[in-house]
Amino acid sequence: MNFYKELENIAKIYFFDNHEINFKNESKNYDYELISEFYYFIDKIKNWHIDNLKKEIDNFILVKKIKFSSLGIPLRNILINSSKGPGIDEIFYILGKKTSIERIKNYISKNQL
Fold first, then answer.
1. Is residue 84 predicted with pLDDT exceeding 50?
2. What is the DSSP letter of 24?
3. Alpha-carbon dihedral 39, 43, 44, 49, rounded to 10 degrees
């Protein structure tokens, strides 16, 4: 980040409610079922502390026997419109449970088969 304007543009994705998923540079061919399963999994988490989020996400990946990138890249795009950025647990923590869940739910509802 070299300019204040860059910070302003980066911050918008975390703090504005009118979030629209933008896949202009990324594949839309994400595993819809995996994202749906994760949605129900993450919605049940009560302790939204960053350490617990990391533990729960790692556990989900372990149980599903998938690579982190299979979940991490789609989630980053769904949550912040970028495949790069902070850790998934950090993004969830910054956005908060309500916003995180809403963004995943919006993705699911727009991509139902």
1. yes
2. T
3. 120
Q: Which domains does the chain have, with CATH numbers?
A: 32-110 (1.10.10.350)
Supply 42's token pair.
Answer: 């993450």
pLDDT at site 25: 46
Query: Residues, the chain, total?
Result: 113
**Mean per-residue pLDDT of the chain:** 83
- How far apart CA 12 and CA 57 sit, in angstroms, is 25
- Whole-angstrom distance, CA of residue 95 vs CA of residue 64: 25
Query: How many Å separate Cα 84 from the centre of its chain?
Result: 11
- Where does residue 110 rank: exposed (0-12), middle (13-18), buried (19+ CB within 10 A)? exposed
Q: Helical H runs in 30-67? A: 32-43, 50-64
Q: Name the residue with higher pLDDT: 64 or 21.
A: 64
- Per-residue model confidence as pLDDT tens digits over 45-58: 999 999 999 999 99
